[in-house]
Every structure is written in C-alpha cells, then in structure tokens.
C-alpha cells in the first residue's frame, strides 16, 4: 500500500528530487544556530493549531526543530516547513526519508488518498439528555464524542452541542490534539494544565476509578487509564490487574505515589484506623472496584457499614467536611485541602496504562516527557501526601 501511494505521488508530481523548495519569507524564521532554527509558525502552531500535520506532531513529540528533522531526513528545512503546512507534497524519496527519521510508516505521515478527510463521529457512550454538550477526541483512529460530565477533575470547554439529533460543532474542535485519560487522581487538573502548557495538546480527564478506567481502555474508548492498586507491600498489583483485565501488550507509566487513608473531621483526633474500624460510623465510600473501596473493605474486615457511595477522593473529603459522613477513605491531598484529620493506611502507586503499540504516538510521547520533566516532578512532590520519586518511570508488562 505504501508503494502504491508513493507511485501516485511520483506520477502526479513527476519530481524525483528530495522535496527541495526555495525559502519562503512568509515563514518568519527566527535564525540562530543552524541546528536550532525554529519558525515563528512552530511556536504558534504548538498552542493554537487544531488540524496539525502528522509530520509536525511527530517532530514536536521528539522536540526537534525543523532544521533537525531536515538534517536527519537529508532534505531542506524549507521543504519540511512546506510539507507541514501542506504547501508541498513530498517526493517519493522525501516521504520515505521522513518516515525513516520519525520511525513510522509513510501512511501514518501522509495517509492514503482522501485519508485526511474528517472521520465519522460516534458516541463513546450515549448521552443521557438532549440537548447535550460534548467533547471530541480522536482515539484509535475514531472520532469519539464524550458527553460533558457533571463532575470533572479538569473542566474543559465543550466542542459542540447535540440537539435535535444533530451535532453542532463549535468550529474549534481539537480531536487529533486531545489525549483522553480516565483516572480518579484528584491532581489531574494540575496534570492537564501542565500538559497543555508544555505540549500544546489538550488532556481530557474523565473521572473514573481504576476498574472503570480499565474497562474504558478495554473498549478502546480512552488513550490512557489510571489505577493505584500497587502498594509498598504489593508493588506488582497494578501490573497484575492490567494483565487480568486487558492481557499483555500494555505499559505502565508511573504518575506518582501517594498516601491513602482515613479522613476524619478536624475535631476527631483519633490516632488508630483499627480502633475506628471497631466503632459504628457513617462512612463515605467509593464505588465497588475502586482501590479506595478495597481499602475500606480491608479495614472493616468485609463487614457491612452505614453510609453513602460517592464518586472520587474529593467527594469523600467533602462528605466528611460537610458532616453527613463521619469518616471516609481518600488520599491525603483531599483531606488536607478540606482541613480534615488524616490517618494514613498505605502508600499506593498511581500508574497510567496505555497500549504498548502507542508508545511513539505524539500525544503519549508528550505525556511521558512531561512526567519526566523537572518542573512537573517538583510540582507533584509539593502536593500533600504525594511523592515524585518514581514519576516518569516506565514499566512494560
């Protein structure tokens, strides 16, 4: 298929050169050292461009300038610029050279004829009301619509409205520049903000416990799923859970380690979680299948308890703070922000799971690069109960 596509290009342009093009002054070059030439368009496109060329996204994922890619592919920098802005269709030799330099196929960079036309949209899950605001993301070569959720760990502007059986897009849809993450990490808003700042991509966070997040991954509805079953005593539980749910062929990216325990009203100065377990209390509990619910069940020895189920660590802390629950299991960050007493029970590892085949996908590469950055690791380490000691580490299954 690659050769067929290349022959079509060759016959159309009859150009056996390697894509050389005269310099275009409209690119507004910022000229310095030849290996660090960047165009003004690069810095603008990194944050505002919506429909970006695959050559551009894969180059930015490696933090290469146009000059660096040109050197590796043995073509001119002007040719790279023209290809990215779709002012030039590359020659056969240039297309092959770019694919080799970016470690991907020609089809991934330039697609088949008509491949750049918008793909049909489909709902990730059906909306419960109409009209319904929605987000849009490209996941596994599908354009999926996600109903805007009532509770969000990082509210993002909606991409359109579903009304009368029709999608009314806002016009600024960034589906190809959106990474979807299902996770219950209460600091996901920080991750999303830093991801956008560092990469120009959007991180769409869907609040889900570990089991629900992996189920979305299994149905190929998200790029990344978060889970935190691994503890100091059982460090391999995240990997075991992924294998049992999804099988092999996935990788775990360490996002953080955190303290999980019992949140209590500020005036309750209890010092032992075990003593609490023997007392009759109203509990704010998480949904079955979540690590926090597992922790509560272990603390209570499987005994039934009084209380109500809530969604998310912050909701547990808010329930205790509001007074309708006397205790709940959550991470220390949420308890500290609500001004609650906190009794630590265990240290857990929060891992982000994604398919190994997506390792070189630009949005995944941008996430890995962010988690390994000094700035982000410092921010994580400053959160109450969080540790960035292993943040950015990769664990293949």
Description of the structure:
With 397 residues, the protein is an alpha/beta fold. It has a domain at 2-110: lambda repressor-like DNA-binding domains (434 Repressor (Amino-terminal Domain)), CATH 1.10.260.40. 35% of the residues lie in helices and 24% in strands. The protein has helices at residues 2-13, 40-48, 54-61, 66-73, 77-84, 92-101, 106-110, 188-199, 210-218, 237-246, 273-277, 291-299, 313-322, 332-337, 362-371, 374-381, and strands at 29-30, 38-39, 121-123, 132-139, 142-147, 160-163, 166-169, 178-183, 202-207, 224-231, 250-264, 282-285, 306-309, 327-331, 341-355, 386-387, 394-396. Strands 8, 9, 10, 11, 12, 13, 14, 15, 16 and 17 form a ten-stranded mixed beta sheet that branches. It has a five-stranded mixed beta sheet with strand order 3-5-4-6-7, with no helix packed on it. α4 packs across α5 (77-84). The two termini are 32 Å apart. 42% of the residues are buried.
Q: Tell the overall outline.
A: elongated
Q: Which fold name fills CATH's third level, the topology of the domain at 2-110?
A: 434 Repressor (Amino-terminal Domain)
Termini separation: 32 Å
CATH class of the domain at 2-110: Mainly Alpha
Beta-strand percent range? 15-25%
Write down the Rg: 24 Å
CATH architecture of the domain at 2-110: Orthogonal Bundle
CATH superfamily of the domain at 2-110: lambda repressor-like DNA-binding domains
Number of strands: 17
Mean model confidence by pLDDT: 83
Percentage of residues in helical conformation: 25-40%
**Class per helix and strand makeup:** alpha/beta
Instruction: Tell me about the largest β-sheet.
Output: 10 strands, mixed
Task: State the low-pLDDT regions, or none.
Answer: 1-50, 112-116
Q: Counting H and I runs of at least 4 residues, what is the number of helices?
A: 16
């Amino acid at each position: 298929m690659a050769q067929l596509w290349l022959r079509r290009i060759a016959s159309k342009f009859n150009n056996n050169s390697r894509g050389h093009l005269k310099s275009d002054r409209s690119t507004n070059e910022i000229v310095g050292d030849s290996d660090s030439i960047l165009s003004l368009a690069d810095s603008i496109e990194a944050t505002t461009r919506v429909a970006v060329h695959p050559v551009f996204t894969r180059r930015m994922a490696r933090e290469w300038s146009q000059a660096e890619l040109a050197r590796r592919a043995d073509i001119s920098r002007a040719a790279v610029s023209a290809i990215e802005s779709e002012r030039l269709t590359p020659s056969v030799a240039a297309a092959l050279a770019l694919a080799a330099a970016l470690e991907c196929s020609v089809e991934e960079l330039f697609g088949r004829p008509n491949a750049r036309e918008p793909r049909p949209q489909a709902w990730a899950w059906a909306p419960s009301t109409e009209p319904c605001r929605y987000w849009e993301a490209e996941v596994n070569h599908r354009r999926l619509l996600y109903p805007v959720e009532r509770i969000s760990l990082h509210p993002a502007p909606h991409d359109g409205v579903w009304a009368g059986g029709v999608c009314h897009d806002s016009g600024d849809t960034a589906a190809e520049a959106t990474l979807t993450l299902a996770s219950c990490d209460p600091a996901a808003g920080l991750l999303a903000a830093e991801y956008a700042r560092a990469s120009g991509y959007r991180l769409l966070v869907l609040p889900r416990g570990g089991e629900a997040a992996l189920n979305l991954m299994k149905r190929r509805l998200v790029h990344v799923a978060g889970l935190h079953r691994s503890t100091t005593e059982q460090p391999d539980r995240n990997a075991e859970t992924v294998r049992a749910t999804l099988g092999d062929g996935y990788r775990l990216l360490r996002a953080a380690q955190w303290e999980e325990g019992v949140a209590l009203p500020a005036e309750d100065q209890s010092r032992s979680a075990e003593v609490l377990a023997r007392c009759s209390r109203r509990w704010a509990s998480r949904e079955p299948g979540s690590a926090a619910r597992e922790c509560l069940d272990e603390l209570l020895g499987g005994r039934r308890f009084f209380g109500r189920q809530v969604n998310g660590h912050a909701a547990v802390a808010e329930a205790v703070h509001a007074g309708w629950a006397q205790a709940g299991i959550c991470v220390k960050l949420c308890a500290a922000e609500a001004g609650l007493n906190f009794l630590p029970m265990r240290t857990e590892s929060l891992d982000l799971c994604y398919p190994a085949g997506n390792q070189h996908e630009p949005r995944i590469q941008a996430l890995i690069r962010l988690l390994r950055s000094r700035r982000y690791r410092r921010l994580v380490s400053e959160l109450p109960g969080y540790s960035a000691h292993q943040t950015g580490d990769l664990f293949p299954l």
